[in-house]
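Dig into these lines:

——
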Amino acid sequence: MDGGELSGAERRVWAAMPAGTRAALAGLPAADLRTLLLAVARDRAADVRPADLVRRWREDRFVRPAAADPRALAEAEAAMWRLLPADVAGVELSPVVPVGTCSAVAPVRQNRIVTTMRATEVLSDPTNALAVEAAVRRRRQPPSGEVHLAAVHRVLRAQDFGAGASAHFRLFALVSSAREAGSGRTEARLLMRHLTYWRAVLADLAPAAAPRLHVTVFDDPVLRERLTDTVRPALAAGHSKGSHGGPVPLVDEPERERGRGYYTGVALRITAIDRTLEIGDGGLTDWTARLTGDAKERCLISCLATERLIACR
């Protein structure tokens, strides 16, 4: 409780409180702390006036409506659902998830998440929530089973993305989980699934925006081999059969460092407009391995920002 890990703002607030306040609050049972915080929120809400609401609506980046046309969003997302393979289960996620859903499995600081008073947090990334759901479903399957899930959700993030940027946006996300088969075969199969789907989406919905899929291998020679001898030939074969997404290239991006430590082995990126606009990201993670307690479980996540997609069409 020495406060050495606190930010300047946190130290200022605790310094203004009576001695022992922080320790007393930290020692409260979770139910009692929630009761206390809800009582404080009720008291503060009682003082809110209509003029306060209008001011907050204008000034608070968390509550301002998105600039995207909801009709265009609905049309694009409906097309994405139609392109999804039949064996991918759609999931309608809750607006909130258990507190720590991101930080417990990924190197994400909790202060980037909007935490609630009820041991939950506002959904900031559907891939984390889908990974938890995938882990729950994998526990009900035999080891040879696999899970493929998809969701579209408006997410809210606490970090400041800069002037004019919204704190909330919609993501269409995929999560796949299956047990390792050896020699990178499971990872290759999952990569082919996701890349084939995103290529179909981009070719169908944004062909004029010069979309590209990018792939980076982080220090894993086995996965580099599978990318060369399995993933790329499968994608090329799909193109030759006249599948969706033929014009969308898969580009090596060996110089990428962002995501190292977050992704394990392979990272993906989706761009448009001559690589100037990033509209998606993804990669292999250890999330379902950690959630199921099975180190052989493999998990691939990927997502696309649908508002950015319609903006570049």
